[in-house]
Each structure stands twice: as C-alpha cells, then as structure tokens.
Design brief:
Elements lengths: L10 E7 L4 E4 L1 H7 L3 H4 L14 H12 L4 E8 L5 E13 L2 E11 L2 H16 L2
Antiparallel strand pairs: 1-2, 1-5, 3-4, 4-5
C-alpha cells in the first residue's frame, strides 16, 4: 500500500443518490482511484472510504448530509490497487424542486497538516470506543 500524490489543483467530483450510491464521477476521480466510470457507477460511496476511517466519522457525515446540511472533513480514499490518498471533502445535499435527490461530493488534495490532524482525531475516536 502506498499513498498516491494528488495534483494540487485537481477536483475529484462525484454524485450519489439519496442512499449514497454513486451516479456520476468525473475523470480526475476515476484517474485517482484507478477505476473506470463503469466500475464506479452503482457502488456505494463507502466502497471508496478506507477501513481506517472510524465508523463515527462516517456516521457523523451521513447524519449531517441526510438532515440537509453540508459536511466537510478529511477522508482517506482507497484506490483499485490497494493504494490510497487523502482528500479534503465537502459533501452537500442536492435538490430538485425542493426535494433532496442525492449528494454532491467535491474532493481535493488534503494538506499534510489536515492529514496529521485527521490521524490524531481517528486515534482519539478509537481510544474512546
């Protein structure tokens, strides 16, 4: 397993339906993960979240976005070859005619400081289980 270095100006974008199933991914997301669009569409967003990410982080994220609010945080993402990368992720509900239809995920390269802070937070969560 090795960490993939994302480009500083890359924006990895995906969309999901209300249940978190991916309905769209842009080319930078596909290139970063190593999966084709066909392989990504239909998978749960959780498929790409690394197992080191505490369940509490994902639960907090899901509760916030399903209540209609945006969530921002640092997430470790898995690639096709067991490699990974860290992203600063903004996840927001998507609406059509006042009805929530899914979520928009915009991810960019996390900084070293953001990653260090996330790792400290992850360890604190694991200790407090």
């Amino acid at each position: 397993m090795k960490e993939i270095e994302l480009e500083n100006n890359a924006f990895l974008i995906s969309k999901t339906d209300k249940s978190g199933i991916i309905t769209y991914s842009n080319i930078p997301f596909q290139m970063a993960t190593g999966y084709t669009e066909k392989e990504i569409i239909g998978k749960s967003y959780k498929f790409f979240v690394d197992q080191d990410t505490p369940d509490q982080v994902i639960q907090d994220l899901w509760e916030k976005v399903t209540s209609g609010k945006s969530w921002q945080g640092i997430i470790k993402i898995n690639c096709i070859e067991k490699d990974f990368f860290w992203v600063d992720s903004l996840i927001s509900p998507s609406y059509m005619e006042d009805e929530m239809i899914g979520f928009l995920l915009i991810k960019r390269k996390a900084t070293k400081n953001q990653i260090e802070e996330a790792l400290i937070r992850y360890k604190e969560i694991q200790r407090n289980k």
